Every structure is written in C-alpha cells, then in structure tokens.
Amino acid sequence: MACALLLVAPGVAGGEPATAVVRWQAPAGCPDEASVRARIDARLASPLGAGDAIDATVTVVRARRSLRAQVSVWTPAVDVERVLVAGQCDELADAVAVVLARAVAEARALAPARVEEPELTWEPPVRPERRREAAESKDGDGPSTRSSGPRSGRTGERARPDGGMRPSVVSGAGISPRVGYGLELSAWFVWGSGAVEVSGTRWLERLAALPPSQRFGAAIGLDSLAARACWNPERYGPRVCVLGEVGTMSGRGVGLFDSRVGEAVYSAAGIGLSLRTRLRAHVALVGGFDMLRAIDRPRFVLDRGTLLFQPDPLAGRVALGVELGWR
After folding, report:
1. Phi and psi at residue 74, in whole multiples of 5°?
2. Which of 324, 256, 240, 245 has the alpha carbon at shortest distance from 292?
3. Other C-beta atoms within 10 Å of 105: how many?
4. Is residue 150 a contact partner of residue 173, using CB atoms and an 8 Å limit?
5. pLDDT band at residue 142 under the 50/70/90 scheme
6. Is residue 130 pLDDT above 60, yes or no?
7. d(Cα 160, Cα 280) in Å, to the nearest integer?
8. Domain-by-domain residue ranges, the chain?
9. Are 125 and 286 contacting, i.e. CB atoms less than 8 angstroms apart?
10. Average pLDDT in the 211-230 region?
11. What's the CATH superfamily of 2-110?
12. Nearest of 53, 26, 61, 21 to residue 37 by alpha carbon
C-alpha cells in the first residue's frame, strides 16, 4: 500500500511569491512528510518556503530487493527527470533530498536580488541668506571663524619645538692614524623644519709609528667642537646638515729620545646625514655619516724633518648614538 504526501510552502498566485510544491509517493514504512521536509531544509541555507519556485514529483516503488525513485523536478534553473535506486527507503529519501535541495539552491542563485528603492523626500528651497545664517549658527555660538592665512604644512609633533642630548660612539678615517675611535656628546634643538646641533668629540690617541717600527712614533689625539645647521623635515626621519669643526690636535712622542708634546689647530667643514628610529617615548636610536674637507692640517714631524702624521684632505666618520629628547 502506498501513501501520497503533498509538501506545499505558503504562497499565493497572481504576482506574489512562487509556491514550492513537492509531491512524495512511497510505500508504507518509508519516511513521512515531516521527515522528508526536514531533510531538504537541512541541506539549504534557509528552509524551503514562499518564493522558492519548484514543482517536483517523487514516486517510490519496490523493485525486488531494492527501492526505486522516479524524480521529476522543475525550477527556473532545471527541468529534469532522474531515477534513484537504494537498498533502504531511508537512504533513498536522503538521496532525493540532496537532488531537490540542489535544484532549489540553483534556482535561488538565478533569482535577482531585491533592490530597495531609495525613499524620495522633498525639501523647500532655502534662500542663500538663510543658508549662511544656518551655517553660522550650527555650533550655537554665533558665526564661525576661519583663518585666511596660509596653512602650515607641519602639524602635530613635527611643528613643536624639541631638543635634547645625544651621546655617541664615533669612528673615522683620515682624521687620526689609520681608523680612529672616539666619544661624542651633542646637544640639539629642533624648531619646525630646522635644527641646530653643537657637539664635542674626544678622539682616542692612535700611534703614528715610525716604519718599520710598531712601537716608536707619536700618539695622535684630537679634541674638537662642531656646530651643525640642519634641515629636519620630520622629527623621526632624515636630518641633513652642513657643519664646521675646530679643535686641538696633539702629538706625544712614544719611545723616542727627548720626546715632547706638540699641539696645533685642526679645522674642517663638511656635510652630514643622520637617520633616526624611535625606540620609545623621548628615546631614539641615531646613526650618522659626515664627510669632511680639512682646512687646517697640522704636521707632526721629527727633529730631522721626517713626517710622522698629517690628517688627510678628505675624511669620513660614522656615529651611532642614543638621542634623549624633551618631547
């Protein structure tokens, strides 16, 4: 004996949402209407309902030791007939649910999305005088004031004055014998796009040895002061400077008979570039490079006139320090 089930989603004709119809005919002992409907709904993003255009008929008959389902389904996307075979009616109901759910999903994908039309409103025209009055009274304190002067291109942290100290380790070539090393302490001040720096540097003594000796000669040292005028577009960014440096270069005899200490003026001018990386509030890591052209180059010689050392015409140095700022 067979039972006939009709699954109909709410809906009406005449221009309203389409009705989903699924006709299910199966022998006794097979899943009922509620079970088949639940299996279809479980495979859809939203339950089968009004607006789903589907008309399907499923007829299940026994064929020896198996069950056979004749499926006829129509949607705006498909119009097909299929035959499904399974050993159990429950398995067959699952297979039918898969076929019908897929047909509904394809039909939903083809359905145009509803676009809500914007609500049109009408406002009476406002006279120009009233528009100005409304704009002026928007804040409730009377007419607004706007600056007519030029706007500053530097705002926030870059526009505020700042300053601080910077201890650094320096190394260079052309200033002292071979590669020299020293310590530098700088004070700097920034205002807008400009910056100034004043620094003092002590170069450690380096031996200018007499060839072929490595123990006799003169220990050369330098104490100097430098002033820099810089272009500083950003607080934590590149800083390009022109600089001038003047100091006292000393030479002390080492291992020589009747050795003496001599001093002379050293001066140079050049350009420099430094880069900053902010580590935390008020603290930045600074790396810099200077190229110098010597102006005063002291000569350190023996009594016989043998030249021990003289700074090179061009010198370069690098520095790495920690900058401590006010802001």
Report:
1. -130, 135
2. 245
3. 15
4. no
5. very low
6. no
7. 18
8. 2-110, 161-325
9. no
10. 84
11. Ribosome hibernation promotion factor-like (3.30.160.100)
12. 21
Neighbouring residues of 165: CB distance < 8 A, sequence distance ≥ 6: 185, 186, 187, 188, 323, 324
Torsional sign, CA 98, 103, 106, 111:
negative
Closest CA to 314 of 248, 263, 269: 269
State how far the Cα of 157 lies from the Cα of 237, in Å rounded to an integer: 12
Cross-strand partners of 230: 195, 241
Cβ count near 29 (within 10 Å): 9
Distance CA 308, CA 206 (A): 12
Residues in the chain: 327
What does the pLDDT look like over 6-28, one tens digit per residue? 444 333 334 445 577 888 888 88
Q: Cα dihedral angle (121, 124, 128, 129), rounded to 10 degrees?
A: -120
Class of domain 161-325 (CATH, top level):
mainly beta
pLDDT band, residue 45 (cuts 50/70/90): confident
Name the average pLDDT for the chain: 79
Lowest mean pLDDT among 145-159, 192-206, 243-257: 145-159
Strand (E) positions, the chain? 2-8, 20-27, 54-63, 66-74, 79-86, 162-173, 179-191, 194-209, 217-231, 239-254, 261-280, 283-296, 300-301, 307-309, 314-325
* Long-range contacts at 142-149 (CB < 8 A, ≥ 24 apart): none
Q: Quick one: tokens of 115? A: 């676009």
Question: pLDDT tens across 154-169, in order?
Answer: 434 444 688 899 999 9
Mean pLDDT of 24-42: 83
Structure tokens at 222: 């330098």
Task: Report residue 1 as tokens.
Answer: 């004996």
Residue 156: exposure state from Cβ atoms within 10 A (0-12, 13-18, ≥19): exposed
Give every CB contact of residue 207 below 8 A, 6+ residues apart in sequence. Answer: 177, 214, 217, 218, 219, 220, 254
